[in-house]
Specification:
The chain has a three-stranded antiparallel β-sheet. The chain is mainly α. It has helices spanning 18-37, 44-56, 61-67, 72-84, 105-129, 131-147, 149-154, and strands at residues 59-60, 88-92, 99-103.
Length: 158
């Protein structure tokens, strides 16, 4: 990717900390989604996890962690409240050491309820930022994740 240049063709360098800027954006956007999805009793992170499980399940925990770009320990911590609420269950796998994670019927119903609230939050973000900006942001994030994939793997986020 070519460096960004101004009218005088002087390369523009990033100012500030990328991590801080991303965290600021995540906090603002996350608060918006949490407020809307929270009306169902789920946090946005729980909704995302439940959505992955509903879509991919039954699935082994290690595969789910890989799909979500998170460590196994983070996944385990995030699963606990969903299991305790009865929305997710662990089912025995093909051998004594393996387990599959799947949504219960109550979990599938909760996910459907939360999906309506998520959609309202997404439409609000699309309206505030503009659809073109959201599409560009998604593309930039996806491209960045691919380019930084080896960093994630180095830190257990395969």
């Amino acid at each position: 990717m070519a460096p960004v240049t101004t009218a005088s063709t002087v390369p523009v360098k990033p100012q500030g900390c990328t991590n801080l800027k991303l965290r600021q954006l995540v906090r603002v956007v996350g608060a918006h989604y949490d407020a809307e999805v929270g009306k169902t009793g789920l946090k946005i992170t729980q909704y995302s996890l439940l959505s992955y499980i509903t879509k991919l399940g039954p699935i082994r925990a290690v595969e789910l962690a890989q799909q979500m770009h998170m460590s196994a320990s983070t996944l385990s911590r995030n699963l606990r409240p969903l299991i305790d609420a009865g929305w997710v269950e662990q089912a025995p796998g093909p051998d004594a050491r393996s387990w599959f994670i799947q949504a219960t019927p109550e979990g599938q119903a909760k996910r459907s309820e939360a999906q309506r609230r998520w959609r309202a939050a997404q439409e609000s973000i699309n309206q505030r930022l503009g659809v073109e900006r959201v599409v560009a942001l998604h593309a930039l994030i996806d491209e960045s994740l691919l380019l930084l994939d080896d960093i994630g793997a180095d830190h257990g986020l395969e």
